[in-house]
Amino acid sequence: MPNRNGQSFTMLKRSIVLTLILAACGGTATAGPEDVGGRPDLPATTADEFEAHIGGIDRPAVVNVWASWCLPCRSEAPLLNQAFEQYGSQIEFIGVDVQDNQTDAKAFLAEFGLEFDHFFDRDREVVNFYAGIGTPVTFFFAPNGELFKTHSGILDERTLALNIDELLQLGS
Hints:
Elements: H1 4-29, H2 47-55, E1 61-66, H3 71-87, E2 92-98, H4 102-112, E3 117-121, H5 125-129, E4 137-141, E5 147-152, H6 157-171
Parallel strand pairs: 1-2, 2-3
Antiparallel strand pairs: 1-4, 4-5
């Protein structure tokens, strides 16, 4: 049987985790139209439509699957934005918002200043089509739209940089 200090520590950990979850959810759950800068809704897409879109791009692409409720997505958003600013003329950056709602998705984009193209995929059709697992997941595509590599989980700076280097070699 745990002692009183053990129980207090467990309760404290639970309280901290709950507070973090509520803070993360509360940051976007109450966002109204005035909070998203008049952004239009993200265009909805299906797997077939997305495959046609990615196949029509003549340069490599980084496709990041995210959701406003996803804490790791919040961590990698600034990294993706920085990569877009640096390589956006050489590589197509695309976001796919999954299992979300339009208001929270637009608030997420506004919060992180993500200006590259994003699509709305409520049912994860695109992710399932490319056999992605979890959220976030990032797909790296060759210039012909062929899936080159998949990264499940949060991206770190090194992983993104290595994959961008490989994509640039494919594109040249």
